[in-house]
């Protein structure tokens, strides 16, 4: 049986969720920090690794911090559990682990979204990943 080797081990990050006007930390899903680079600007935020998402979807605030004109991107309509949303694709460089960054298309929402998602296109198709939820551990190995 083939074995996978992972060069990076990360801990789940707590996720701050607002419910009923109160902010509280939830039992952490597989959340990691993502750094974005675009036109000489850099910003970071947290995102859930979501194997059920086709695309990587991030909040407009990140695009604004990178100087990206969201509405000028490639338009796409997504169907989500909360209903359809219109999003805009832009090519950015992302960095997940030290010494590994790559250009990919990220979708940005025009309006605020409850959480950022790392899906198949732009993330899972670039990494070998293993999750050990019981221990809150994420294992990553870039597949460049």
Return the structural class. mainly beta
SSE topology string: EEEEEEHEEEEEE
Number of strands: 12
Using the coordinates shown, work out and report the CATH topology of the domain at 33-127: Cathepsin D, subunit A, domain 1
Do you know the CATH architecture of the domain at 33-127? Answer: Beta Barrel
Mean pLDDT: 88
The radius of gyration computed from the alpha-carbon positions, rounded to a whole number of angstroms, is 15 Å
Which band does the percent of strand residues land in? Answer: over 45%
What form results from the Cα inertia axes? globular
Unreliable stretches: none
User: What is the CATH top level name of the domain at 33-127?
Assistant: Mainly Beta
Helical percent range?
under 10%
Q: In DSSP terms, counting alpha (H) and pi (I) runs of 4 or more, how many helices?
A: 1
- The CATH homologous superfamily name of the domain at 33-127 equals Acid Proteases
What's the N-to-C terminus distance? 23 Å
Largest sheet: 7 strands, mixed
In terms of topology, how is this protein built?
Elements: E1 8-11, E2 15-19, E3 22-26, E4 31-38, E5 41-49, E6 57-58, H1 60-65, E7 74-80, E8 83-97, E9 100-109, E10 117-118, E11 127-132, E12 137-142
Parallel strand pairs: 5-10, 6-9
Antiparallel strand pairs: 1-12, 2-3, 4-5, 4-8, 7-8, 8-9, 11-12
Structure notes:
The protein has 144 residues and is mainly beta. The chain has a domain of 95 residues: Cathepsin D, subunit A, domain 1 (Beta Barrel). It is 4% helix and 55% strand. The strands form 3 sheets. Strands 4, 5, 6, 7, 8, 9 and 10 form a 7-stranded mixed β-sheet that branches. The chain has a 3-stranded antiparallel β-sheet with strand order 1-12-11, with no helix packed on it. A two-stranded antiparallel ribbon has the order 2-3. A hairpin with a 2-residue loop joins strand 2 and strand 3. The longest helix is centred in the middle third of the chain and has 6 residues.
């Amino acid at each position: 049986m083939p074995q996978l080797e992972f060069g990076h081990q990360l801990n789940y990050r707590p996720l701050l969720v607002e419910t009923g006007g109160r902010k509280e930390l939830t039992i952490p899903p597989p959340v990691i920090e993502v750094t974005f680079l675009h036109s000489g600007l850099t910003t970071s935020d947290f995102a859930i690794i979501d194997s059920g998402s086709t695309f990587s979807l991030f909040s407009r605030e990140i695009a604004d911090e990178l100087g990206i004109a969201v509405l000028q991107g490639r338009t796409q309509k997504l169907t989500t559990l909360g209903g359809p949303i219109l999003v805009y694709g832009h090519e950015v460089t992302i960095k997940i682990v030290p010494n590994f960054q790559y250009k990919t298309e990220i979708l940005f929402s025009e309006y605020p979204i409850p959480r950022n998602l790392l899906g198949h296109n732009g993330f899972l198709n670039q990494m070998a990943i293993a999750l050990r939820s019981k221990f809150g551990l994420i294992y990553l190995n870039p597949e460049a």
